Amino acid sequence: MSLELIQLAKKFADGGLSANAFADPYIAKWSAERDANKLKDDNANVSECASTIFILADCYNPDLDRRKSELDEAGLRAEVKATLSKFKLA
């Protein structure tokens, strides 16, 4: 099931979605899969990648007064790309 999350992340990483169109839907879908206990259905690599991207999406803040620990759109896109590459899912 998390492969759908990975596809959503790839679409964002490739510029097909804005950060605003990506972050909240990704968080909602990941949370729904977690609550339905579906994350365990995928291999550990996919599950860990999806969970890492969830954390990144949660750190997204479009406001100019963001904390250093928060990401703007460019930062989120770069981190999602790096995470997909790290897990060899790019």
From TrEMBL:
A biological process (GO) annotation for this entry? bacteriocin immunity
Q: Which GO terms describe its molecular function?
A: toxic substance binding
The UniProt record lists the Colicin D immunity protein domain at: 1-86
Q: What is this protein called?
A: Colicin immunity domain-containing protein
* Taxonomic superkingdom: Bacteria
What SUPFAM superfamilies does this protein's entry cite?
A: Colicin D immunity protein
